[in-house]
Amino acid sequence: MSVQTEGTDTAGEPAVHKARVPAPPRGEDRTSRGPSRRGAAAPYLLLLPALLATLVLLGWPLVKNGMLSFQNLNPRQLIQHLTEWNGVDNYRDVLGESEFWHVVERSVFFTAANVVLIMLIGTLVGLLLARLGRKMRLLLLLGLVLAWAMPIVAATTVYQWLFAQRFGVVNWVLDKLGWHSMADHNWLETQFSTFAVVTLLIVWQSIPFVAINLYAATTTIPRELYEAAALDGADAWKSFTSVTLPFLRPFLYATTFLEVIWVFKSFTQIFALNEGGPDHLTETLPIYAYVEGVGNQHFGVGAAISFLTIAVLLVITSYYLRMVLKQEEDEL
């Protein structure tokens, strides 16, 4: 607040003089800047424990695995505690095998088929949750959470029982419905039927995550937008495409990205069900790395395959992100 004093200058006219307000001491200015700087550093300090845990639990094993991929590490080297560096020979051998490229192709198609089914069915279930009554919604959510919470090994064991050749429930039901040739059908005998069972298992486990996320996203859509669309004469499909879908699109992009990663690195379901059989025809890249590294005890080769698996996953995810960003730019 300025203090004004009136006076008279040499011409006899009144003059207004403003009293000077003393500036704050330099010490107070420095003190006031201190808490702001500490506040700006607080988020980084809070992230520090998580970053350290990530470096210890993920970063160091990744570095060790990278070092193994440049070594000739077999049982002889392990027993004699030898370190034999062979440069990029492991990568050259893996990339030169046609089997590796067959596994890459198989992994990509397997991931694409699963993600499409997961996103399609999960989105429909999420939209259904938004339209159900309270009691039915609670019942369906309970079933989704129970399916999601079941451990992977336990779920795989249940599916082994369901599709067992002699005493499986699926074969028994098909036999009772008139397909008597399916009474003793071996679902793990061919590549297609084995992948069908694995796909059913993975899709069943992944639908709850997508459905619950999409249902949560629908609760953020303002009801006024639907009322405005109804006043404009929009039907159910028009309301979905003009109101619901634009709000759900970011959630769909993020969920699809996560599902691509989760399906691509699926190991337990495939290995526990049939160990990548029959005749290694259902091996994906994680299974292939494990069989070559641990199963055949070529640990250096297995480490190289695991790094190539990460590289393939990065290529897939970067292509997907590039496509999403391009689509968003076109919409703008």
Can you put this structure into words, describing what you see?
Helices cover 73% and strands 3% of the residues. By secondary structure, the chain is mainly alpha-helical. It has a two-stranded antiparallel sheet with strand order 1-2. Helix 4 runs parallel beside helix 8 (191-218), helix 6 packs parallel to helix 11 (268-274) and helix 12 (285-295) packs antiparallel against helix 13 (299-331). The two termini are 49 Å apart. Mean pLDDT is 85; it is low at 1-19.
The portion of residues forming beta strands comes to: under 5%
Structural class: mainly alpha
Main sheet summary: 2 strands, antiparallel
User: What characteristic shape results from the CA principal axes?
Assistant: globular
Radius of gyration: 31 Å
Helix content: over 70%
Number of helices: 13
Strand order of the largest sheet: 1-2
Tally of DSSP β-strands: 2
Oligomer: single chain
pLDDT < 50 stretches: 1-19
Provide mean pLDDT, rounded.
Answer: 85
The first-to-last residue Cα distance is 49 Å
